[in-house]
Amino acid sequence: MPASSKVVALAVNVGLALAQTTVTVNVGSLLQQIDGFGVSQAFGRASQFQNLTASPRTQGLDYLFSTTTGAGLTIIRNRIGSGGAGDSILPTSPGSPTGTPSYVWDGVDAGQVWFSQAAMTYGVKTIYADAWSAPGFMKTNGNEANGGYLCGVTGETCSSGDWRQAYANFLVQYVKYYQQAGISITHLGFLNEPDLVLVVRFCHPLLH
Fold first, then answer.
1. In what residue span(s) does the Endo-beta-1,6-galactanase-like domain sit (predicted)?
2. SS3 letters across 109-157
3. Can you give the CATH number for the domain in which 167 is found?
4. By 3-state DSSP, what share of the chain in percent is helix, strand and coil, each rounded to 5?
5. In 3D, which of 106, 114, 111, 112 has the Cα closest to residue 89?
6. What pLDDT tens digit does each residue of the chain (208 aa) get?
7. Per DSSP, what are the bridge partners of residue 79?
8. What global pTM score does this model have?
C-alpha cells in the first residue's frame, strides 16, 4: 500500500474512533487545578527566535503571551544544559564530587535568558528550569544520554564517588545565574522523562 494510502486509512480509522467516543464534562466538579499553559524554546530555539528581525519577533511573542491577540501563555520551561562547552554551566568535571567546579556562564544560555525576560514583560511569572540530565561525569554510565543514574543514589555507586551534593550545587548555581539577570526561577526540575529509554539526554529518577 502506498504511503499516502496508509495515511488516508489511518485518518479514516481515527475519525471513526473519535466519532464513537463520548466525552462528558462536569464543570461543577473540581478534580485537578491547572496553574496555566506554557511553552519551551529549548535546544537553541530561543536563540533563533531572538535573532529574528524586530517585526516577526514581536509578533511571535504576541502570539505566545498576549492576552488580547495571542494565546496568553503564562509558563515557560527552560532547559538546563548537561553537555560540554557551550551547553552546560559545568562543561568539564572538577575531578571529584568535592572538587572545585569551574562554572561557565555566558549570560545568554542559548537565548533562554532573552526569552525569559521577554516573557516577563507580558506578565509571565512562572519560569520552570528543568535538567534533562545530570552532566555525564556525575552518572553511572558516564554519559548525559542513554539513561544511567546519578552516582550515589540508592543502589548506585561510582568509582568517582557520590555526586548527589555536587549535582544539587550545580542546579542551585544555575538558578543563581538567572537571579543575577533579574529572572526568578520559580520551579526547578532535576530530570526529564526518566522512564523513557531513548538515545537522548535523560537520567533515571533515583535521587535519595
1. 22-195
2. CCCHHHHHHHHHCCCCCEEEEEECCCCHHHECCCCCECCCCECCCCCCC
3. 3.20.20.80
4. 30, 10, 60
5. 106
6. 555 444 445 454 555 555 677 888 888 888 888 899 999 999 999 999 999 999 999 999 999 999 999 999 999 999 999 998 889 999 999 999 999 999 999 999 999 999 999 999 999 999 999 999 999 999 999 998 888 899 999 999 999 999 999 999 999 999 999 999 999 999 999 988 776 665 545 565 544 3
7. 130
8. 0.81
At 50 the pLDDT is: 98
Residue 164 lies in a domain: yes
Q: In what order do the strands lie in the sheet with 75-80?
A: 38-40, 75-80, 126-131, 187-189
Query: CA 7: distance to chain centroid?
Result: 32
Note whether 149 and 208 are within 8 A (CB): no
Spell out a b/e string for 176-186, using b for 16 or more CB atoms within 10 Å of the CB, else e. Answer: ebbeeeebebe
Domain encompassing residue 154: 32-189
Backbone angles phi, psi at 180, to 5 degrees: -65, -25
Place of cell 548525559: 144
User: Looking at the domain assignment, is residue 204 inside a domain?
Assistant: no
